[in-house]
Design goal:
By secondary structure, the chain is mainly β. The chain contains 4 helices and 26 strands. A 5-stranded mixed sheet has the order 1-19-18-17-16, with no helix packed on it. A 5-stranded mixed sheet has the order 2-23-22-21-20, with no helix packed on it. The termini are far apart.
């Protein structure tokens, strides 16, 4: 009896070990099938830091998407009748003006993208945007615009000579010389949406192409949706590294523009591509918003299930990584957030609740931990 019991336990242990190895092997195989980089598994063992925010009161009407650059908040929404973007000082609350005028005139715009990049040139703060109807990059002199009270911007034709191409959803300058752009090609339907082109600013020749995921995924595959559905993007100050956050998979992707190295940061013991592939009905939303500075990446995590009919839920957790992929801090906010931005000069995190439009500011130098 004892011998039989020992043999049964041994066989059971062997079966469990074999099954575990099989599942890990399948997961790794799917990672390689769908993702073009290496997956780095992280342990979520950091002590939770509880942060208390200060409400930001802004003068006038504001709603929509929030972008932050130091003491300035940029609000973009269709409710503005004659302009696309309003600027506020988030310390004083003062409304500094409405910019990027709507219209069909030579200096007006039918459409405009988000602000993809902030940068300084000749001590002037500038913003990088794109007009899809004009097929032009828009370089907005924010400093000059605030001082003059009217929009000062220059336009550069981009993707205007090829009817088969369109800007996908992101654009920035690498070291103020090359253009890195997420480009869609209508003549290549299997080219992944998560494809970035490094383009010489002067010759407009593509020097490198980076594909974050495999180009053979069926459009009806759940993983296709996970890779392409709501993946906010950010980059470091110099534009040499790119970070994307995935909503339907708990993964942050880091791409080094100079070397081409791609890694995916995933917490250990969390859903993988296998889980997403078998997904039915409601889905869990993971990362919702992402921002960065020269040293760190700030990712807003939700971790709630939704059917998406009522939109994305807000979140309260901020994971802080460095640009090498090391997990440094885990912050718990006392308020819910749908968008986040970083005030680099004052080391403050700005959040916006997309359901109430309330804005809060958190001092990242404070470590109120429990």
């Amino acid at each position: 009896m004892k011998h039989g019991s020992f043999l049964s336990n041994f066989l059971l242990s062997l079966f469990i070990s074999f099954w575990g190895i099989f599942l890990i092997s399948c997961s790794n195989s799917l990672d390689r099938k769908y993702f073009n980089g290496d997956i780095v598994f992280l342990e979520d063992e950091l002590q939770l830091e509880n942060l208390t925010g200060e409400q930001v009161e802004l003068d006038g009407v504001y709603a929509g998407r929030m972008d932050v650059c130091d003491s300035l908040i940029f609000m973009q929404h269709f409710i503005y009748p004659d302009h696309f973007i309003s600027i506020f000082n988030h310390y004083t609350g003062k409304h500094l003006g409405g910019f990027i005028p709507k219209g069909n005139g030579p200096s007006e715009f039918v459409d405009i993208s988000w602000i993809y990049q902030f940068f300084y040139e000749d001590e002037h703060l500038k913003g990088l945007l794109y007009s899809f109807s004009k097929k032009k990059i828009v370089i907005w002199d924010i400093t000059e615009s605030i001082q003059a009270g009217v929009t000062h911007a220059s336009e550069i034709s981009f993707l205007d000579n090829d009817s088969n191409t369109s800007l996908g959803g992101y654009l920035f300058f690498e070291n103020n010389k090359n253009i890195v752009a997420n480009i869609k090609r209508f003549d290549l339907p299997n080219l992944p949406d998560q494809t970035y082109h490094k383009i010489n600013h002067e010759t407009r020749e593509t020097e490198k192409i980076y594909s974050l995921c495999n180009n053979s995924i069926d459009n009806n595959d759940n993983v296709f949706q996970a890779l392409y559905h709501h993946n906010p993007v950010t980059h470091n100050i110099k534009g040499t590294k790119l970070a994307t956050a995935m909503a339907i998979l708990p993964q942050i992707n880091l791409l080094d523009i100079e070397t081409g190295k791609l890694i995916g940061l995933r917490m250990n013991h969390t859903p993988n591509f296998r889980n997403v592939k078998n997904l039915r009905g409601e889905m869990k939303i993971h990362y919702l918003s992402i921002t960065a500075d020269a040293q760190y990446i700030y990712a807003l995590y939700v971790g709630e299930t939704t059917d998406l009919k009522s939109g994305f839920p807000n979140g309260r957790i901020i994971y802080l990584f460095d640009w090498n992929g090391k997990l440094l801090r885990k912050l718990h906010l006392d308020k819910e957030a749908g968008h986040i931005g970083i005030d680099v000069n004052n080391h403050a995190l700005l959040i916006k609740n997309d359901l109430t439009d309330e804005i809060y500011r958190y001092n990242l130098n404070d470590k109120n931990t429990q």
